[in-house]
Amino acid sequence: MPDFKIAPSILSADFARLGEEVDNVLKSGADVVHFDVMDNHYVPNLTIGPLVCDALRKHGVTADIDVHLMVKPVDRIIPDFAAAGASYITFHPEASEHIDRTLQLIQGEGCKSGLVFNPATPLDVLKHVIDKVDIVLLMSVNPGFGGQSFIPETLNKLREARKIIEASGRDIRLEIDGGVKVDNIREIAEAGADMFVAGSAVFGAKSATDANTYDSVIAAFRAELAKAAI
Q1: For the chain, which residues make up each domain, given as ranges?
Q2: Which of 16, 43, 47, 77 could make an S-S bridge to 70, C-beta 3.0–4.6 Å?
Q3: Contact criterion met (CB below 8 Å) for 217 and 196
């Protein structure tokens, strides 16, 4: 059974009490804290920066922080997120003039590096820089907003990405972001994903017994993943 990771996106959390929200979701069984960083330029929204990452580390969060940069250009902000405590930093190939150099920059800052592919972006670039990639993130919605529906064609793309990763012989995570729900996470896992970003599906659900925890939805994710035919 693959080492599945659940990575709730704080884009859907209550920002007025973000530290508490992150603490609760990790206590409920989440593995990774996912950051959706948007610049109102590459994508039509504006969200958070390195100060929020730094604040969560100072708050006491020790889990991996997965920073998805939806910004253009990307190189300037990478050292700031690395210094703020990011574990993974991923970016879109379209947002870098020199993709290989940007991957080297991330790894040189001590973080795990990755590429993000929008729904209509082919995986061609991956084959040429796979030696510098620790994680591949496939968008199953068009980036910029939370709460969107999963694009079914992404399942075929997951299968393609999984074949590329296995052919490389490298230990590379395959992450999915967008519209991940209890009723589709099993199918997504069977297509090849092993790390699952979920925003509204997690932070929009509360435990029946405690309004401040997310036990029920994360337990439901785990139960579905356990059924996956891998």
Answers
A1: 5-226
A2: 43
A3: no
Fold of the domain built from segment(s) 5-226: TIM Barrel (3.20.20)
Active-site annotation holder among 36, 66, 134, 194? 36
- 36 as an active site residue: the answer is yes
Identity at 198, one-letter amino acid code: A
Residues 138, 126, 173: CA angle, nearest 5 degrees: 50
pLDDT of residue 207: 55
Q: Order across the sheet with 32-38: list the strands.
A: 5-8, 195-198, 173-177, 135-139, 112-117, 88-91, 64-70, 32-38
pLDDT at residue number 26? 97
**Blockwise average pLDDT, block size 10, the chain, 230 residues:** 93 95 96 97 94 98 98 97 98 97 98 97 97 98 82 97 98 96 97 96 72 85 94
Question: Active-site residue among 39, 134, 177, 215?
Answer: 177
3 is catalytic: no
pTM of the full structure = 0.95
